[in-house]
Amino acid sequence: MRVATLGFHHESNTFAPVSASLEQFLASGPDQGNELIAKYSESQATLAGFIEAAAADADVELVPLLYFDLNPMGTITSEALETIASRLLAALDEGGPWDAVLLALHGAAASEVHRDADGEILERVRRLVGADVPIGVTYDMHANVSNRMVDAATVVNIYLTNPHVDPRLRARQCADLIFRVVRGEIHPVMALETPPLAVNILRQGTSDSPMKELCALANEAASRPGVLSVSIAEGFPYADVEEMGMAFLAVTDDDPELAREIARELARATWEIRAELEGNAVDIDIALHRAAEAEAHPVVLLDVGDNVGGGSPADSTYVLAAAQRLGVTGLFHSLCDPASVALCADAGVGATVELDVGGKTDDLHGKPVAIRGTVQMLDDGKFEDAGPTHGGFRFYDAGPRALVHTDDDHMVLLTSKPRGNTSRQELISAGLDPTTQPIIVAKGVHSPRATYEPLAAEMIWLNTPGCTSADINALNYSHRRRPMFPYERDAEY
Ligand SMILES: [Zn+2]
After folding, report:
1. How many angstroms does the Cα of residue 11 sit away from the middle of ligand 1?
2. Could you tell me which of 375, 347, 369 has the C-alpha nearest to residue 356?
C-alpha cells in the first residue's frame, strides 16, 4: 500500500493586521521528504500519528511529501495559498499513483480569495487523485468545518482536546481507518452537523465543564457498534467565514442514518447548554483593583485581547495604560517593541530612559504608552524552559530584549519578536523572580496556564480589546451565518 502524506497548517485570524504571506510561510518551511519524518516522528503532532500508524502496519509504505506550517496570524495572501496549493498538488502528482492520501490540515485557514482554504485544497487533492483513492484528514479542534472539508474526504477526524494533547492519537486513528478502507474492510460514511453556535475562547478548555462532559459524550458515542469515529470541533471565532462555529462529526461503517443521529444528538446536547459556552472575562479596571488589593501574589492577569498564539501582535497597551491611570503599581508586562529595545541598548544598562512603548502595530491594541525608568537588563532574548509549558516547547527566542524598571514601579520587558507569556523562565532569565512579582500580565488565554497556574495566587482573564478579544460580540463580522448564538441571542436550532 503506497500512501502519501502531506499537509498545510494555518489558523488564520481574519481580524489580525499582519497577513500570512508567502515569505512568512517560506521562512518557516516547508519540510519535505525524510526531513518531515525526522522532525515529526518523535513529536505529538498530527504527522506523527500518520507516521506511527504506517510504521505499525507491515503493508504500508508511507511517502512523506511536503508540509507547510506557520504560526497563527492574519489572512493568507492569494499568492501564498496558490503557491502552497500548487506545490502540494505537484508533489502528489509526481509521486503518484497512490493507494491512499493522509492530509494534515488545520481547518481554520482562510485566504483572501478562499475563505474556506482547507476545503479548497482538499477538493483540489480529490480532483487530482480521483474518486477512488481514500483520503484521510485530521483537523485541529479549532477548525471551522465546512461541508466541503468533509465531502471531499473519505475519513475525517478532529482533535478532541484543548490544549491539544491528542493530535498524534487522533491522526493514528484516522490513518488506521484509511488503511482498512484500502483493504476493503470498511465503508465509512460521515455526517456533519453545524448548529449556529460559537463557543467563547474562555470556555474551550476540554478539562473544564462543559467541554469536558461534551467530549465524554463524543467518546461514548464512538464506542457504539458500527461507529468508527466521533469528533467535535470548537471552531475559531476569530475567522470571519461562513462556516465559523462549532461542528459535530460522526463516521460510521456504511450506516448514514446512525452517523446523522449521532452528529445531531451531540449538537442538540451542546445547544441545550449553550449559555455555558459564553465568555466570562473581567473588565480591566475591576481586575486591576482586585489584583492590587489581593493578599496573596502573584496575581496573573491574562490579556485575552492580545493572545499572541491566536494571531495578535504582542504590543497591546490597554492593561499598562489602565494601571497608570488607576495608580496600580507592580506589574510585570512584556511588549513587543524592537524600536524601544534599540533605544535602551543605545542608552545602556543603568541609564534612565523615556520611551513611548507598545501600541505600534495597528490601531486595535491601544496607543503607545509613555514610560520613564531605568534600563535594568539587556540580552539576546534566548532562554530555555525544561518545565511544563504549553505545547511542550523548551527553547525560546524573543529577539533582543530590554527590561525597564519604571519610576512608577512596573517591570516592562521589551522584546524584538512577538511572544506570548507562556514560560516563567522569561522572567527568571531577565533576573526577575516570578513568585515575588505582585502582578504578572500574561498575553494569552490557555497557553500561559501550564507555567503560571502552579504559582499564581489567582488567574484573572481580562476583557481586553484586540483582535483576539474574549468579547466576540465586538468583532465586526461580514461573512458569518446569521442568526447565530451568542451574537443573536434568539437564534434557533
Ligand atoms: Zn487549535
Report:
1. 8
2. 369
